[in-house]
Every structure is written in C-alpha cells, then in structure tokens.
Specification:
alpha/beta, Aminopeptidase, seven-stranded mixed beta sheet, two-stranded antiparallel sheet, 9 helices, about 10% strand, globular
Amino acid sequence: MVTLPATAGSIAPAADTVPANPWCGPLVRRLPKVTMAQCQNSALKASGKVSIKGFPLLVREVPARIKNAEHPDQPPIKVLLIGGIHGDERTASSIVLLWLEALNKPVAGEFEWRIAPLVNPDGLLAAKSTRVNANGVDLNRNFPTPNWLQEAPLYWKKRTGSDPRRFPGKAPISEPESRWVFDEIEHFQPDVVISVHAPFGVLDFDGLSTTPPSRFGRLMIDRVGVYPGSLGNYSGVHKNIPVVTIELPNSLVMPADAEVARIWQDMLNWVQHNVKSQTPVSSHISASASESAKTAEQAGQDVAVQVSTAVSETVPSVSTPESALVLVPAQSIAPALTAPPALAAPVNEGSVSKTIKEPA
C-alpha cells in the first residue's frame, strides 16, 4: 500500500534547499493538509499558460520509469490527472498535490503522467472560494461537446434555473483554463483522464470501451449521466478517452491519510489492469530509438571533448544556452461530432445548494 508522508505541521526544509515557488504561499493557505514543504517540493512548473487573473496554470510531467513486467515492449499508459477545476472544492486540489509524493512507488512508475492539481486557481483564491472562474464560468460546462451552442445554454436555463454556479460561458473553451485542459488532451493524448472533485462521495465514469472501476477506497461507482460541456461528456463520450471522476466526500476536510492512500492504490490498480495504451508500438519504438540516438550522439561528443582535452593544453569552454519553451499554438476546435449525447435526467437545482445531485 502507498504511504503518503508528511501531514500538516511538517517542518519545511532550510530556505536554501527549497526551490522558490512564489505561488506556494497563497495555495498553502487555502489547501487543507498541504504544507509549504510539500508544495515547494512538488516539482510543479508553470505551464506557460495563466488564468484570467494571471496565476500560472501549474503542471508536472513525469515519464514512465519502469517497464510493465508482463508487457515490456508496450508503450506506457498515459494518465492525465487533474484537480480543482472548481475552485471551492479545495480537497480536490489537495489530494492531487499530495499524490505527487507517491509517483516513484511501484505501479505508478509504469505510467506516463501529466498532472495539474489546480485548474481553477482564481476560483480557489477568490476572497470566498468559488466554483466558477474569474469570468463566472463553470469550467466543467465549457468543453466543446457537439451542439454546445444549442444544448449548453438551454440546459443551463431550463434544468438549472440559470444557476450562476453552473454558467457554461458564451462559447465552448472560451476560458484560458478550459482551453488549456483541451490543449493538454490534444497534445498529450492521454489513455485515461482522472478528474478529482468534491463533495458527493462517489465515483463517476464516462467511456465507451473500458470497464469502469467499482470502487476506489470507500468511494463506490454511481454513474450520474452526462451534461453539455462537461469533461466527461467531451472526453469520455465523444473522444472515447475514458474519464474517471473521483468525488471526495467533503470539499473542505480531507479524508484520513489511510483513505487517501487507498484511493490512490485502487486507482493505480484499476488503470494497470483496465486501461490500454493507445500509442502505436511503432511510434513508441521510434521515440525510444530517437532518445537512444541522442544519448549516443552526446556520448560521442563527450569522447571527442576528452580526446581534444588530452591533446591540447587548454580547451575553450563551450556553454550551451538552455532551450526556450516552445508553446504549440492552440488547434482549432474540430467540427461537431456525430449526434449529441442524451442529456442527464432533470435535477432539482438550487442556486448554491450543495445537496444538488449533480456531481462534477
């Protein structure tokens, strides 16, 4: 079982050993059970994209470190793990950030990860944390599902009573935060998306060709349908990239440490046994060969430098500038796909009530 170290109250490392991440101060003040040391040592990086208010959208990219013992020639499974798409679901960001400490454990090392613990930083850091972003848009109703322009506004008005907490925006992926998730799916091409929410205490699943999980820890599967513009609808139904939605039981109070570890381990086991890599083997081999060629080329350069050093008394030092981050321009939205999905059954939605039966 995975043991997640360090709970609130841990002593941070000395200042000269901790990388200076200026975003950790405001985050730690809002995220339950996350210490300054854990945030500083999380290896999260600014993605190059920012929220409406300019807060960096943070990400950690982790390559696979271990080959699958049963299928060593298969490409690693790609997992996109996100939290905090709703800013008032604080535990959703906390648990993802804490799980970063367990990535070097068995099973997790077999996967290639793209992890974003906090998709909606403006919502989290508002004077009173909000579900919506700084533009008042519910990011989980802003993804480009087919017929979005007709279905999303209609659903919002008729089914939610124009609930401001569920406003889908004026156009799909109109927000920088939802656009960033959309681009990550396009570029990373995950084999599974895991999105953490709160506070309904269930598992939800959207997908066409993958066996859904039955439980993670104490959370049991309870499929609740799809909504126009939701990530599960967009990725799970229309792109056929399965989406598991983890709904923690409380948005402000973290589960016990043992339950945090159980959810993590059950999630890993489910991915390992039920998700298949969609990366073509030929592409994986080509990428590995390319990496090997780079390594061999660098080794040859090192040998050449050593020989040159032995012959010449002095060898001019050569410094290679660090490569700049190249941002790929956002691709245009693909045309609407096939027929729209069936909408979820009507729900009795109040304006801010947490008792609404509409997870995510």
